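Hey L., structure's done. Input below.
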Amino acid sequence: MTYQITPQPERVGSTEISLLLRDGKSKPLTGVHIKLEANMSHPGMAPVFGESIEIGEGRYRGKIGFTMPGDWIVLVHMTLPDQKKVERQIDVKGVETK
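Output:
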C-alpha cells in the first residue's frame, strides 16, 4: 500500500487520502472495501471515520476530517474480495490549524 495525503502540509478540516494497492506480484488490487478511521495519538478524543471508493486499477480515494491540530493515526481497514481482512496504519505527524 502506498498513499498520498492532500492537502500538504496536513491541516485541520477535510483531508483526502489516495491509496494505491498492489498484491505481492505488483498487480493492482481491485474490489477492496476500505473504511478509514482516524484517531489522535493521545487518548480522550473521538475518532473520525470515512470510506474510500475505487477510482481505477487498484487506486482508491477517501476523505476524513481532522478535527484538531496534533498527531493522528489513520487506520485503513480493508476487506479483500475473498473477505480476508487487512489493516494498515498511517502516522500523520503535526496536523496544523487551518
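The chain has a mean pLDDT of 95. The chain has one domain: 2-95.

-- N.
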